[in-house]
Design a protein that fits this description.
Elements lengths: L2 H38 L12 H14 L6 H19 L3 E5 L5 H10 L4 E5 L2 H10 L4 E8 L3 E2 L1 H9 L3 E9 L3 E4 L10 E5 H6 L1 H7 L4 E5 L2 H8 L5 E5 L1 H6 L3 E4 L9 E8 L9 E8 L6 H11 L4 E8 L7 E8 L5 H13 L2 E9 L4
Parallel strand pairs: 1-2, 1-3, 7-8, 7-9
Antiparallel strand pairs: 3-4, 3-11, 5-11, 6-9, 6-10, 12-14, 12-15, 13-14
Amino acid sequence: MSEQELQALRVRIDSLDEKILELINERASCAQEVGRVKEANLAEGELPVFYRPEREAQVLKRIMELNKGPLDSEVTARLFREIMSACLALEKPLTVAYLGPEGTFSHAAALKHFGQSVIAKPMAAIDEIFREVVAGAVSYGVVPVENSTEGAINHTLDSFLEHDISITGEVELRIHHHLLVGENTKTDHITRIYSHAQSLAQCRKWLDAHYPNVERVAVSSNAEAAKRVKSEWSSAAIAGDMAAKLYGLTVLAEKIEDRPDNSTRFLIIGNDAVPPSGEDKTSVIVSVSNKPGALHELLIPFHDNGVDLTRIETRPSRSGKWTYVFFIDLVGHQKSPLVKDALEKITAKSVGVKVLGSYPKAVL
């Protein structure tokens, strides 16, 4: 390619950039107008709802369907996520609580779902996230609910038993663990490895093979582990890319998780119900009598109505010894006829049913 051809392409790119910038700002102005229309049509005492999870899911799905490349559809959707995040911040910035400190996978999940323009607030514990959302101190919370390697996050499930709250969305995050060291670390004298208990479990085989005699210390989060090793010379941390960059650590070994498909699913919690998006999931808690065949009877209405169940977890009930509740995720919105009918039937057969919420399936 000649210098003249290269210059012509650069001129064309500059022209396209100007058009993209103009269109993004036009979209932002339109978003501001949407906010004004919403406020103008409110009843007295009613608060405007600026963030609509079902609408965002519909927009992202549509963008992915329209995309013809060469950019990958998920890459394109992430770009539009950031545009929507910035536009929403012009109407009303969202405040989102996550399991801190900064640099955790929960932090990464919050930014993946809401975009970089959100105001992210780190919390010390999962239950604290629930309390902040219930109190209205934050708009939404992001909590881990299950990992593909280690299973359910019981602290999150138990918090749903204690709080009246709605699930408004979900986000899936590929989890890549790295062994990180600080600038003062003597890599041939590592005697201690810090990480969250879940992460230590997800890297168990790798640690057994490479550091079998090194002490493994569970801390409150991977980011906390990264903070500790920054000032220590004989320790390392297991954490992700975000923590490595945030705390200025070096990757000694990358992607050390035992399973290459290691992923964690996070739930978005809030105080509002979400209308159907066209591709939804519903989560419920069901309490049943302690009798033979109780679970079988519970599942029959879903089977008869062709409702797909994607997850069932069991936790001890707070109502009595050796009694249990079932956490169930299913495909479909609670307002759809088949799901609604199935929920009504299991309500009649069970001790209690609590619908945690219907929400759009994860797009990215």
